């Protein structure tokens, strides 16, 4: 049976609120956590973006659930050697229950130092080399590396877990999926697309774990849920590569004026009826994902967890207190 987790949104919530949500998620029967890693929110309505590594440290003290970053970009804004140190520390804090989800990033977060935003093929090339650097450092040995994109000289991590941090690679297009299958310890996505899972497995992923996540908006009515989701996350419905190339929250707000409430309503479960939530989980499970993560949009988090426990989990064959 698919394992169901909760997706903590750093774009919407401040650090202490994320910690509260993690406790509620565990109490509600969720089995694991995703947490986003951003420098900026997608738009100013979302209004937050705490430093994920500080939040993970706090989470490790209040929950026993395994945690995956969804996802970290270890290529531009932060050097992979520093990400390797952060991930090694997180793995020890989480007592081995930590996975580093990585991706090729978005200009929204990575352009902040004024570096040119590379093309998609170059970003994937950088990601592959970054993973190579991080895995070398997780051995605990001294590392010197001179590659096409990164230089490391006489670097050694002294605080490392007993086994390397698992690296799951996020992918949506065929080249990224091929890379995920070739170098990843697992695969993550946000699309209930069985062909992506097959491509990952055929590219070398075999029976390695696969993760996916999606957003919902539980509310007293479907109309209220749509309005909240449209106000906060209209950017989710932007097409093509816009999410990778737009540089600021302001640009996402401008592009999102093209997204209608009807588009949002057709894209995600909203409102008080549990069946669309159940159907959405099953859609991802049927696509072949091993782990599925759910994120509630908006401030009504505690009400969402009660709704999930009382109405959705039993319909999925996952009764409260399992």
Could you characterize the architecture of this molecule?
The strands form two sheets. An eight-stranded parallel beta barrel has the order 1-2-3-4-7-8-9-10, surrounded by five helices. The longest helix is centred in the middle third of the chain and has 18 residues, at 120-137. α3 packs across α5 and α5 (120-137) runs parallel beside α6. It has helices at residues 15-27, 52-62, 80-93, 107-110, 120-137, 174-183, 194-205, 222-233, 242-245, 249-256, 261-265, 275-286, 301-315; strands spanning 3-8, 33-35, 67-69, 98-102, 143-146, 151-155, 167-170, 186-189, 210-216, 291-296. With 322 residues, it is α/β, with parallel strands linked by helices. It has 13 helices and ten strands. It is globular, with a radius of gyration of 19 Å.
Helix content: 40-55%
Side-by-side strand order of the widest sheet: 1-2-3-4-7-8-9-10
Quaternary status = single chain
Question: What is the structural class?
Answer: alpha/beta
Tell me the strand percentage band.
5-15%
Q: Name the average pLDDT.
A: 97
Number of helices: 13
Low-confidence parts: none
| Morphology call | globular
The strand count comes to 10
Cα-atom Rg, whole angstroms?
A: 19 Å
Order of helices and strands: EHEHEHEHHEEEHEHEHHHHHEH
What is the first-to-last residue Cα distance?
13 Å
The biggest sheet amounts to: 8 strands, parallel, barrel
């Amino acid at each position: 049976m698919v394992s169901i987790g909760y997706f903590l949104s750093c774009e919407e919530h401040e650090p202490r609120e994320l910690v509260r949500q993690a406790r509620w998620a565990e109490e509600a029967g969720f089995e694991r956590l995703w947490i986003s890693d951003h420098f900026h929110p997608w738009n100013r309505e979302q209004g937050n973006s705490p430093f994920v590594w500080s939040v993970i440290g706090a989470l490790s003290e209040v929950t026993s659930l395994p945690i995956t970053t969804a996802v970290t970009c270890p290529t531009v804004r932060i050097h992979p050697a520093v990400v390797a140190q952060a991930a090694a520390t997180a793995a020890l804090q989480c007592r081995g229950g930590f996975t580093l989800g990585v991706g090729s990033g978005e200009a929204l977060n990575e352009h902040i130092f004024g570096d040119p935003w590379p093309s998609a093929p170059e970003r994937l090339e950088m990601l592959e080399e970054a993973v190579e650097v991080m895995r070398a450092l997780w051995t605990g040995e001294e590392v010197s590396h001179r590659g096409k994109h990164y230089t490391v000289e006489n670097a050694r991590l002294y605080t490392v877990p007993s086994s390397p941090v698992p690296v799951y690679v996020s992918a949506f297009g065929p080249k990224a999926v091929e890379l995920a299958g070739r170098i990843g310890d697992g695969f993550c996505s946000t699309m209930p697309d069985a062909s992506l899972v097959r491509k990952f497995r055929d590219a070398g992923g075999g029976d390695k774990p696969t993760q996916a996540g999606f957003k919902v908006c539980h509310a007293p009515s479907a109309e209220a849920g749509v309005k909240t989701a449209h106000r906060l996350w209209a950017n989710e419905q932007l097409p093509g590569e816009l999410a990778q190339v737009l540089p600021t929250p302001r640009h996402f707000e401008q592009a999102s004026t093209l997204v209608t409430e009807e588009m949002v309503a057709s894209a995600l479960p909203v409102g008080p009826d549990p069946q669309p939530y159940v159907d959405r989980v099953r859609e991802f499970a049927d696509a072949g994902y091993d782990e599925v993560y759910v994120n509630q949009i908006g401030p009504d988090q505690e009400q969402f967890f009660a709704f999930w426990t009382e109405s959705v989990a039993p319909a999925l064959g996952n009764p409260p207190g399992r």
